[in-house]
Amino acid sequence: MKKLLTTILLGMLSATAWGEVAQRLVFDLNGPGPELVAAIQQGNALQAKINPGVRNELWFNTFHGSNVGLASLIITYRDLAHYAEAVANQEASSEWADFLAGFPGDKFPITYSGLSQVVIDSDAAEATDGSVLAILVFNTGGDTAGLAAEVSKAKALQDRINPGAAIGLVVPTLAGDATNSAVVLTRYASMTDWAEGGAKLQASEEWGEFLASFPADKYPIVYQGLSTAASVQ
């Protein structure tokens, strides 16, 4: 588990011109959710001590088809240099080693670990209990910049029509993610806000025009889901 939590190809440091990067760890829920939350809260408190500036969010899959029995820990760093510094700090910390040794990995095994570049920041506050994350995975066909331009249009429209939503775009870079994929993440304060936001968009002529003009054949959706946050503070 320590290897999964702390090892990504550090040779990528030549790309430190990137902005924020996000590490995603997926846990299989073979134990009670509150126990995972408690373990992540413990790790978050320790992370704040040895790695200031690292942000942790825990999301439980709500509507994800066959992937419903999973949870994702999203760990965000300022850039790849910050990520590498955090990894080194963890490896040098006896407290972190003790935390990993005591983590209930038999109940919550990590089934996936990946790293993504934040292309468009959602500008959202840290997730709190009950926050909702709508997830759309697109096949970019290699044209990430083109999809980012479309997401920027959507973000500008949402800011006017549905200001309670916060749209971001991340692009997987390492550890087994599908080539040419990009993930649009839209945050809402609650499930109610998500439902009301959808109604606002459906009623908007501007949003309808945007959807009609979106090149869906060029950027097809290959996965979608909805997750709910549990506070790790």
Q: Classify the fold: give the CATH topology of the largest domain.
A: Alpha-Beta Plaits
The stretches of 5 or more residues where confidence is low (pLDDT under 50) are: 1-18
Number of DSSP strands? Answer: 8
Tell me, what's the shape?
globular
Give the averaged pLDDT, no decimals. 88
Helix content: 25-40%
Largest beta sheet: what is the strand line-up?
1-3-2-8-5-7-6-4
Total number of helices? 7
Structure write-up:
With 233 residues, this protein is of the alpha+beta class. The protein has helices at 2-6, 33-50, 80-92, 94-102, 144-161, 191-202, 205-213, and strands spanning 21-28, 55-63, 70-77, 110-120, 132-139, 166-174, 181-188, 221-230. The protein starts with a helix and ends with a strand. The model is unreliable at 1-18 (pLDDT under 50).
Produce a short descriptive summary.
With about 230 residues, the chain is an alpha+beta fold. The chain is built from seven helices and eight strands. It has two domains: about 1-10 and about 20-120, Alpha-Beta Plaits, CATH 3.30.70.100; about 120-225, Alpha-Beta Plaits, CATH 3.30.70.100.
Write the layout of secondary structure elements.
Elements lengths: L1 H5 L14 E8 L4 H18 L4 E9 L6 E8 L2 H13 L1 H9 L7 E11 L11 E8 L4 H18 L4 E9 L6 E8 L2 H12 L2 H9 L7 E10 L3
